[in-house]
Amino acid sequence: MTEKRSKRTILASSAVAEDRAFGSVAPPIGLSTTFTWDDHREKPGYDYARRATPNRDQLTSCLAELEGAAGGAVTSSGLAALDLCLFMVSPGDLVVAPHDCYGGTHRLLTHRARRGQFELHFADLTDEAARRDAFARRPKLAYLETPSNPLMRITDLAACAKEARAAGTVTVADNTFLSPMLQSPLELGCDVVVHSTTKFIGGHSDVVGGAALAKDPGLAEELAWWANCTGVTGASYDSWLTLRGVRTLAVRVEAQQRTARNLARMLEDDERVRAVRYPGSVSHPQKNLIARQQKGPGSMISFELRDGLEVGGFLSGLKLVNLAESLGGFESLICVPDTMTHAGMEEAARREAGIAPGLLRLSVGLEEEEDLMSDLKHGLRQAEAMA
Ligand SMILES: *Cc1c(COP(=O)(O)O)cnc(C)c1O
Known about the structure:
alpha/beta; Aspartate Aminotransferase, domain 1; PLP-dependent transferase; pyridoxal phosphate; PyrdxlP-dep_Trfase_small; cystathionine gamma-synthase activity
């Protein structure tokens, strides 16, 4: 990479006006699965679409530049990107992961480990002693996720990266919750950054995808090689849609975060709500680390209702906020992690991670703040009425 460009400029100018056939300003969609050769002895830049396509390359470059990566792979989903990173481990190697990671990640690692593909150790990586113990076991790969989903615990990425380097561990950080606008794991010393582009990056809840991007050019090339080898690369059309969606990432993240700050404050001040978990709260136990590591608190809020109030009653009072999984889209969504996003985790693991049956997770969208406030208040009134 040459000079470091502003993220807003990267978003607005990636792959713009690069079409040499017709001079299209917006990148054209290319759906061809195969490409012609000029000479049978010389492999062209594009040969077969599983390996590379112009649309997928455009998205990979844009995301790599946003994260300060040398390159990597755009995959068919976020989980495919995480799974791709496991090419680095062999049977007998140890993988360390947070005990309260994304439910699908927890399931993926647990079931791969059960097949003997690696040893697995779940730890509370937000706890200094537990973190030191985990790295003392010299894992081959440490999977990091911060803020944690859904409990908003913060892992110190720079401290993990430092301990990992001393232990010879490769660090893979899932940056889905904050997006490259609010956190830069590679700048903090991590080796690979992973995204579910289904969330903030795509931003429009209409395309599933993922990316794994590495700072080291050799590792970036290996990720791309394995993505082609295993066939987990993302579709061209999906890459085109995701690049279209990411254009507005900076303004979306800023607007959603502004609303989330005010909604979190409202929930904290309401006596019908307890245990609001939001990285922007003045009461967040890790606020110094948040200030050091994140450029902002983001737009995800988790909370529980006061004892005696039922989640069902609250949800039945919502008109604007929809009950659905996923996050980071233009529309506000609420979910109950215990029975929805994290149902793939075994119950004992959910309880140990602190995911209570009454925990709610809100992804704040782009609606008018006052409308969201009155919707949440309506839900709270309904919960009271049904108590
Ligand atoms: C959604 C999500 C994933 C999985 O991504 P998919 O695109 O659904 O496969 C991984 N990590 C986090 C933090 C997520 O929110």
